[in-house]
Structure formats: C-alpha cells, structure tokens
Amino acid sequence: MKNLYKISLIICLFIAATTVFAQTNPKPNISGVILDETKKPADYVTIVLFKASDSSVVKTAFTDPNGAFNFNISGKGSYYYKASNMGYKTLKSKTIVLTEDNQKADFGTAQLTASTQNLKDVNVAVTKPLIERKMDKIVMNVSNSSIMTGSTALEVLQKAPGVTVDQNDKISMMGKQGVLIQLDGKQTYMSSADVANLLRNMQSSEIESIELITNPSSKYDASGNSGIINIKTKKNKNGGTNGSVNGSLGYGKNLRANAGLNLNHRTQKLNLFGNYNYGKFERDNLIAIDRISNGTPDTYFMQVGESNRKQYNNNFKAGIDYFIDKKNTIGLLVNGYFNHGNETAGNNTLIGPSFNQVDSSLITNSLQANKYNNVSYNLNYKSVLDTAGSEISADVDYSKYKGNDGSNYENDYRFQNGDRIRPIKYTRNNTPSIIDIKAFKIDYNVSLNKTVKLEAGVKSSWVKTDNDLQAEELVSNAWQNDVKRSNQFVYDENVNAAYTNLNKQFKNTSVQIGLRVEQTNSKGNLITKNTVVERNYWDFFPTLFVQHTLSKNNQLGFSYSRRIDRPSYDALNPFIYYLDEFTYSKGNPFLNPQYTHNFELSYTLLQKYMLSIGYSRINDVIAEVILPDAANQSLYQTNANIATNISYNANLNVPVQITKWWQTNNNLNVFYLSFEAPDLAGSALKTGKTSFQFKSQQTFTIMDGFTAEINGSYESPLDYGTLSLKARYYVDAGLSKSLFNKKASLKLALSDVFNISENNLSSAYPGLTYTVHQKNETRIGRISFTYRFGKNEIKPARRRSTGTEAEQGRMKN
Predict the structure, then answer these.
(1) Which tens digit of pLDDT belongs to each residue from 720-741?
(2) Is 108 exposed, middle or buried (0-12, 13-18, 19+ CB in 10 A)?
(3) Which tens digits make up the pLDDT trace of 713-722?
(4) What are the record's GO terms for cellular component (predicted)?
(5) Residue range 565-608, pLDDT digits in tens
(6) Which tens digit of pLDDT belongs to each residue from 261-302?
(7) Phi, psi of 581 (to 5 degrees)
(8) Cα(113)–Cα(166) distance, rounded to whole angstroms?
(9) Are 204 and 786 in contact (CB under 8 A)?
(10) pLDDT of res. 241
C-alpha cells in the first residue's frame, strides 16, 4: 500500500495543477439537456447554436454523458439551436433572448425522436447503423445484424472494421497484435489463449455492441499497444418483470447449438437480473506444414494433420442492485462458466532428402480433454454527488479460475515400406492450473464548472497463477515421470495505479489531458529448476485528446497516448507443448514488457464519413515467432522481444444510403508494418510491407421487419515478425424477420458462403524455409430464434460488470 500512497500523491499534485488551469477560463452562460427517445441522457449529440436574426452559426458542441451541453456567449441577441444525431430527427429548439452581456439562460430539457422513412406506404423505423463513429471510438452494433446470428463472440469480432482473427484465434487491430479485450468496460486478466476460449464460448445473442478504442484515455488500464476492444453485453432496458429466450442451430461439417434465458425484475428499491447460456460447439481443423531443416544434407518434412474439437459451455450471470435513495446504489454481481471438451488429432509427417523422396515417417495420434471453471464476484457502489453529474464509484472484485488439460500421445516411427523403426512411444500430460485474482478500484469525476470536468481514480490488482505440468512416458508398461518436461511455474503480479483526466470545453474545441501512473511488482518462479525472474518498476502514461469543430459538418481530432503490454501468462510459462516430436511450442519467462507511443489524427465529415491516420512505435515489441531447433531438427513457436516495430495506418469508413431500401457500410484499413531485430536466435531480422483490409456490409430492407445482409472481407498479404501471411477473404450472408408484433425475431445466416477462408503463411526469418496451410470449418449455416416477454413499466437501473476483466484477459475456459 506504501507504493499506492506514492502514486496517489503524484496524482494529487497533477490534479492541483490542472485545477488551477481549469479555473482561469470563462464560465458558460447558456445550457440545456438532450434526452433520447427512452428519456435517457443522449451523449455525443451535435448541438449547433444559431443567431436567430440571420440563422448564422455561432458555435457547435457535443452533449456529455449526462446529455448536457453549454456555450459561453457574451453578446446580446436571440439564439436557437438544432440537435442532430444519426437515427433521430433533427430537433430545433425554442428561441431565447439575451438582453444583457454574459446573461445566463437555460434552454431546458428536450427529447429526440427516432426518425422514420416511408417505404411504399410501409412505416420503417430507422435502426442503429452497423458502424457508428463516436468521439473516442468506433462502435459496431451487433444485436440487429442477421449475419451475426448463432455466431460466437470470436466469429463476430472477425467482422469488426480493422480487426483480424486468424485460424489460431490470434486477435489484431489495425494490423497490430497486443489488443486488450474488455467485457462491459472491465479488463479480463487472462492469457491470450484463454481470452480466445472465453470469446469462443460466448454467443452473439449475448452481445449488444463492440467498441473499438484505438487510443484509450488515462482512465483505462495502460495495457494494449493496439488499443482496446470492449464487448458490451445485452442489458434488459425494460422494467417490471421481463426477459427473453433464444436458441440457435448451426451446421457445417458438424452440428453446433446454443440456447439461453435472460430475466430481469425491478421494483422501486430493487433490481434483480440474470442470464444463463448453454452451447455445444464442434469444429474440424486441417493443418499442413512443409519445411526444410538445414544440414548436411538438408532434411525435408511434409506434415499433414487433422483434428476435431468438441466443447460444451455453461455461462451464467446473476446480480442485484439496491437503490438506497435517488443518489446512491449498491450492487452485487456473480458470473462465471463451467466448460469442458475434448480434441482428437492425427498427424502424419513424411521425412526425406527432398519433397519428392520419402525414407521415413512419423504418425502421431493424440487425445486431449479439458475442463475450465471460473466464478467471479463483484461488489460495487455508486453515488451521484450533484445535479451536474459528479459521481464517485467503487468496485471490489474476486475471481478464481481452475483449469485442467490432459493429453495422451502416441508416436509411431516407420520406414518407407511401413515397417516400424522402433516401438511406439506413448506419452501423456496433465496440466492443472489455478488463477487467483483480487482487485479494487475507486473512480471519481466532478464538474469544476460547466466547461471543465475532472476525472481521477486509483486501482490495485493482485494476480497469482499456478501451472503444474505433469509429464509422463510409458516405459516397460509402466508410467514414469518425464523429468525433462515436468515442471511447475508460479507467477505473482501486483499492479498499483492512479490516474487523472482533465477535460476543458472551449468555443469550438474540446481538450483532454491525462496521466496514469502504474507501479508493477512481478515474480515468476520455475519451481522445478529453481529459476526465479523478479521485476519491480514504475511507469508514467500521459494522454492527450483534442477535438475541434471546424463547422457543423466537419470535425477534426488528435490523440496521443503511451501504453504498455506486459507479457501474457501463457507467454511467460516455459512449458513445452508438442504437436509432434518435430513441432512444438514453449513459453519464455524472460520476456520484458513492451512500450508503445500512439498518435492518431481523425476527420469526420457530415457526422458519418470517418478518416483516421495513425502512427505508433513499439520498443521491445513482444511478437510470436517460429524458429528452428537445429539440435533436434525441429520447428518451435515462442514469443520474443523483437527490438522495434513501427506502424503507419489509415482507416476510412464510408456508409452510403444507395436507395431507401439499400444501405452499405464500407471500411478500408491501409497500414505499413516494419519489424527490426539485430539478433533473433543468431540472425538479424528486418521486415516491412504495406497491407490493407477491406470490409463491406450491404443491408437490404425487403419489407417492414424483414431485412437481408451480405458481408464481404478481403485482407491482403501481410508480414508480421517472422511470419509472412498470404491474402484472406470470405463472404457471409443472412436474413432477419421480426415476428409477433416485434416481440420475436427469426434469423438465418450462412458464414463463408464459398468456403474460401483459410490461413496460408511462410517464413520471413532468414535461412528458415517453411509453409503452413490451415483450414478451419468456416462454412456454417445457422438458424436462430429469439422471443422477448414481460412487462415494461419501470426503467431498470444501471448494470454493473466486474472489475477484473483486464486481469482475467491474460485464462482458459
């Protein structure tokens, strides 16, 4: 706690300095509040103030999260405003008259109305667009899309603009890996492999929207060099007792299914909510690797493997909010999952002096079983301090994860004629793991005046992971411990942080400056070998955001942030996992954190056409690399600190309303990535290539409540570290129909219509030659049905999620 006091002192000094700056600026004298169609505060609504005498534009502003806006007007005269936001009718206010300089005036509260279009005498309500641009993020609205139906969260992410998910479930954004995944605004504190498992087990029916934050403010954890992806789960917006049931079936080569129940009950003092989802998932995978092992002479390996993975998932959430009074609320939330599955795989590796000549082979068969359980608890409190929106909130979290992977292998070496070279080798692994997470945080925000807001907060987290690899081999019909592979790795990490943000609204410009301080203590202990890696370090992460309104239809933005990526738990874990005896992966306990400087310039035209240009430089970049093991003629995958990664990117988003019944959203992401390492496993590495991703979504309104969608994606060849990836592309299609007076919906979807989505990569590492082909089961037809029921009398209060998602974003499900 002593370190936390130091951090808090630094933040207090920063707050004092910024407060002095804040109070030197003139106070606004004209104000108002905008509500949406549900009478909730509407944020990021464009407010344009006009002079009534000649309808000339005076100033422009955006509403804050409380729906409030304000202006500083010194001159006399008559004024009115227009409020506009996508999906709503433009709202024109009454006219107010200022008879004195700096006279105070209040437009009062006004409510937006959802816009509608008349299509062949059918009244069609305008729904949220697939892609929305907000001040600090891009939002993909998932809930209304038929293409997303019956998909997993991992499959939905692949359709987000600028996001790539490869066949090994590695997630990158704007061409860069190191994305921080959040759930409902909270970090997950899990390894990258475990985050992929979590998202693979989450259904699209649970997701409301996905937020892409390429340059987060100081309020967010400093992790994630390429930004943050925040997955917002659905929250019942109606009151009384209500809920929904949903179910879907999918089939490609295998059957998959999921079903869920969501319930909500609210009284004047109490809000109870919960959901449960069950899913059955099965997928086939093909992998083919051709490689050359340099030697005298060279040895050629041709490997083909097929696997079938089955997963059974049980996810749940339950919570209660108690409204102490109008300003104070306390809540308790419990969520978790109980999942298990198995995977069977067969690999055949042909070995010889050339790709056309074989003298021996290795046949490897394996059976893996897994079980992942996690329960998280969150206690939260929120107090509204004044009518200007000042508030304080606190979260206390505890989460415990237990996982167990068991694997059985048989390795059969044979001559070309089929005779065995030696008896079959039998091995097995058992890998129990426990992750214990504790965290607390306090957030405070206050309106110093009508144009200045201050945010501040502190957070501490404690994470302990215990991984025990129990490896055995069969010798003389008895299982014996394999001392070369058995190991135990315990990792402890404590991060203490404090932050502050100061936001100042000028005439046409909004400026936010921030600082986050983090102090990290970590200890990795490879118990079997008595190898301890201990680190203690301080870091400072400044941020700057500037938003300038050139005119009603033109906005400019600039942002800068410094960020950190600490190595994920599985990347630090030095255990060795075999695909076969010539192909394996292992962790690296000596990884250092990587640091990133991010710059971004954005331009928005007509509140819908969006262009952003970014630059980032990463030092000690952590990258997945594939390297040779010359002693064993093997190929292995690991993570290493490559010296430098420089990235340039430009992202353009263009929605187009072609006709009243046909609209399209198009996203183009162009980027240049370069990697440079003077010494990577004995060789220098220097790569660089310009690449692009293009995604286009077509939405057709056939009739009221009946829509069709087509979604296409193309990703050009890309170099990343030691990997050179070939182009990837696919097309999805879907239909959606509302039923029973819009209380139900039926959706049909077909992913990867032409069955062309696959991964092909080769080596970008000097002197290493290999090619890899991967093909997952991607063409899947799905049908989904959702029915909503219950009363709608009282609007429910907030929903809270846990505060440990960042730490859980580094575990398995």
Answers:
(1) 888 899 999 999 999 988 898 8
(2) exposed
(3) 999 999 888 8
(4) cell outer membrane
(5) 888 777 887 777 777 777 888 888 888 898 999 999 989 888 77
(6) 988 888 878 889 898 989 898 999 999 999 998 888 889 999
(7) -70, -10
(8) 42
(9) no
(10) 85
Q: Considering the entire predicted model, what is its pTM?
A: 0.72
Class of domain 243-809: mainly beta
Can you tell me which residue has the tokens 């239909």? 735
- Torsional class of 570: left (φ above 0), alpha (ψ -120 to 50), beta (otherwise): alpha
Looking up tokens 């290539």, which residue turns up? 689
Whole-Å CA distances, 658 to 84, 112, 606, 655: 21, 26, 16, 9
Which two three-digit tokens encode residue 636?
Answer: 């292995």
pLDDT digits (tens, 9 = 90+) for 361-402: 999 999 999 999 999 999 999 998 877 778 899 999 999 999
Q: Tokens standing for 30? A: 């004209």
The distance from CA 743 to its chain's CA centroid, rounded to whole angstroms, is 30
Q: What SS3 state is found at 443?
A: strand
Distance CA 233, CA 143 (A): 10
Q: How far apart are the first and last CA of the chain?
A: 32
8 Å CB contact between 84 and 91? yes
Strands (E) across 214-327 are located at 228-233, 241-251, 255-266, 270-293, 299-323
Report in angstroms the alpha-carbon separations of 723 from 347, 566, 766, 779: 22, 22, 11, 26
Overall CATH class of domain 131-235: mainly beta
Cα distances from 98 to residues 38, 269, 382, in angstroms, run: 32, 43, 38
Would you call 199 helix, strand, or coil by DSSP? helix
C-alpha neighbours within 13 Å on the C-beta side of residue 528:
18
- How many whole angstroms separate alpha carbon 779 and alpha carbon 733? 11
Among the listed residues 488, 659, 519, 646, the one whose alpha carbon sits nearest the alpha carbon of residue 593: 519
Q: Which CATH number fits domain 25-114: 2.60.40.10, 3.40.50.300, 2.40.50.320, 3.10.20.340?
A: 2.60.40.10
Residue 797, token pair as written in the block:
């209060």
